[in-house]
Amino acid sequence: MTVEEVYTNAFDGTYVAWTEVGSSPYLHNTNTDYIDKLTSKTKTYSEGCWSFPNSAGSGTINSVKLRFEDYRTNLDGDASMDVYVWDGTSWVYVGYLNSYHTSYAWEELDVSSILNTWDKINGAKVYLQTSTATLTDTLYVRRLTRKVDYTEAAIIETITAKNFPMLYLSKPVKAQELISKVEGATITKVANDFPEELIKSGKAAELKSKFAT
Hints:
The chain is an all-beta fold. The protein contains one helix and 17 strands. The strands form four sheets. Strands 1, 3, 4, 6, 9 and 11 form a six-stranded antiparallel beta sheet that branches.
């Protein structure tokens, strides 16, 4: 399994009822940029929308979560932040953040059932809305990430017709190199294409392939 977590990289200003501090998109990975809102007993306030870079992932999606770093000033109050996510067709309410802490801490919401395709993951947007409060609280949010856990599609290379020696070389960080010496074989590639280079000719042709694991 592979886990990819990325910070928001864009804020479109559709809703701007909160206070933005610092540089857009405000909820990226810094300690100085954030948003805050003093809640009201009678009103709700919306802020958004945030989006994310396209995922580098592929294969089977195991889970998708939205993670927020936030806090609030008055633990005796009952204010919270409602979270909405765009699923490609409509806005979906996914839950709320209590922010029951007086310093920044992480909270997360599982959106696996909503962002259940790669197109939905790549097109996801988020906005926040305060709930009404019995007592006034100030809510702060400093970071927002999208976390995807997935299983990559298998890479299969099938070589038929001839027997040949095969050698797996040392594995670099992101690629594994397979060198096969073969004469008169038929090569069938399944699931993923990868570059091939014929580097030697003669009685036996040497075929070098590199593919990501």
